[in-house]
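Run Glycosyltransferase through structure prediction, thanks.
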Amino acid sequence: MSTPKPLHAVVFSISLQGHVIPSVHLAIKLASKGFTITFVNTQVIHHQITTSSVGSRDDDDVDIFASARDAGLDIRYKTVSDGFPLGFDRYLNVEQYLEGHLHVFPAHVDELVRGLVVTADPPISCLVADTFFGWQSVIAKKYGLLYVSFWTEPALVFSLYYHLDLLKINGHYASQDNREDTIDYIPGIKAIEPKDLTSHLQETDVSTAMSRLINKVSQDMRKADFVLCNTVHELESEPISAIREIQPMYAIGPLFPSGFSDTKSVVPTSLKPESDCTQWLSTKTHGSVLYISFGSFISCGKNDIDEIAHGLLLSKVNFIWVLRTYATSYEEPYVLPNGFEDEVKGRGLTVTWTNQIEVISHPAIGGFLTHCGWNSVLESIWYGIPMLCFPLMTDQLTNRKLVVDDWRIGVNLCDRKSLTRFEVAEKINRLMKGKSADELRIEVMKVKQTLRNALAKDGSSDWNLCQFISDVEAKIVNKV
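Sure, done. The structure for Glycosyltransferase is below.
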């Protein structure tokens, strides 16, 4: 009797830092459970990773998963064109890029998948793709593959997009004058205010490429055979349970590096060169440093960044600030206020990029001023770091609701629409010092334990992943 061949999944990630990281960790996790994986990056993401992390100028032959294979995991690596040359500025030409994402990129993916279906050994059995592609179900169906939708954000946000039709019917989305009353009709969500919807769902102009993508995503996510979600069931049981009544969803988060070290992944994932902050941090006392980062992609208003800089001066706290060169605009680099660096010398460090997990896991870190990207939220909780929340766009607004209103492990940076340096200084000190800071740390430690329990052997996330694999195997047997 022949031994059954392992399941072989093709894994596709969206070309953004916040999506690449959990996708890579998902691939490693599936491979550690016996899957054969073919991981696919776009050529531009491959180029950014190899030049930033590996230091290679001729990156065509660089395999970022080589070390994972050396560790015994069967992960192959491919790249695919997104339809644009490497030199095309995807940030400055976002509408054109999104049009390509909808109409050009799928053809390149189709060609790659067709080749893999013909040649791969063991044969391809399922397509695992980031939910935000919006067209992957068509390719999976075309080649007879199971379609696994990978959701990198909270289950709460998944549910909002899933029930886009209800938001439209009730006038909370795609209306010239969107309603502003409480939304209380979405299964698994007791109540949410319109201001806490993702930024794309608050738009009134639905003629944009992004709006058309969201509509496609909402339709395509319903066609998935399975949904994997980078969250924890105990933290989002109600929206997960509601979705599970109509579609198989498995909470398998948090997806972090595992098996090699606490802070380093065996696979490089950073799209930018990283500064090492550990030596500087080691000169600071326990819990005395505020870490500040607003992610890899979305720009802030120049006035807001200026007020944050002045607020840091007034607060007198130690800080590390990840301040991208183009923090406020992709057309013009940001310049700090005159004299800022001299005034914070010794207590403040500004870098353009760093290894975030390496920084927030350091004992000197006592708080995180964050844009509320989902990876940042999960990493903060994992290391017991309370958050000062300054969401900018997309799911970050909804993530803020979870952090501040539901779990009470963070505070809002700004209680009014206009950010002022005096409020910034006051909120920083509230996060870092005194009774309110102690109360936040108590709450975040409770949620931290929930995450750690979920990821432990036989914890809910590990159990869900094993159940997902069992269900995939059963579905493939039934198909055959």
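Residues 259-263 have pLDDT under 50 and may be disordered.
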